[in-house]
């Protein structure tokens, strides 16, 4: 597949807390680092996202008496899954993954920093109104084709891909450069992305 000058590699939440041993580990999450590094060296543009929660974020189960991680609760903006405390601003768990070669990143979008609203998507927070500014950045720079990699397929990659399509970007997910939290959820995520017009490629198709 030929790369174009308007192509962007969007690397989603490859952070220490999402790797094996982290506070919210994605199975085989560290397996995405090698493919992403190869891709980042070859792509004309690279953008990263980073989960960046303040202490006591509303999505943390520790904030909700009587609830445990992975329970769901009603929030003002809808149903919210609760998570272990993770990617807290300034902590080692929030840092980009060791070994991730991020030097060529032109932009880092930090999301989830509003205390009362979670954020999976690189484009819109969970209230579906608060924008991260990524769509405007890409549009102003004339970057029209996005290739998504990172963590996790069934949450932040899924929401980002759907929002990218809704914003009018040609969107691809790089299959061997993503991993999901739940196997069934990952299969459902790929099906949902396909219905939205998100295409699937492998890193070997690109480098």
Provide the fold topology.
Layout lengths: L6 E6 L20 H10 L2 E7 L20 E4 L2 E4 L25 E5 L22 H7 L4 E7 L1 H14 L3 E10 L3 H13 L3 E3 L6
Parallel strand pairs: 1-2, 1-6, 2-5, 6-7, 7-8
Antiparallel strand pairs: 3-4
What is this structure, in a nutshell?
The chain is an alpha/beta fold and 207 residues long.
Please state roughly what percent of the residues sit in beta strands, choosing from under 5%, 5-15%, 15-25%, 25-35%, 35-45% or over 45%: 15-25%
Q: What Rg, in angstroms, do the CA atoms define? A: 16 Å
Give the number of DSSP strands. 8
User: What letter string, H or E per element, gives the SSE order?
Assistant: EHEEEEHEHEHE
Principal-axis shape? globular
What does this structure look like?
With 207 residues, this protein is α/β, with parallel strands linked by helices. It contains 4 helices and 8 strands. The chain has a 6-stranded parallel beta sheet with strand order 5-2-1-6-7-8, with helices on both faces. A two-stranded antiparallel ribbon has the order 3-4. Strand 6 (145-151), helix 3 and strand 7 form a beta-alpha-beta unit. Helix 3 runs parallel beside helix 4. The longest helix is centred in the last third of the chain and has 14 residues, at 153-166. The model has no long low-confidence stretch (mean pLDDT 97).
Descriptive key words:
207 residues, alpha/beta, 6-stranded parallel β-sheet, 4 helices, 8 strands
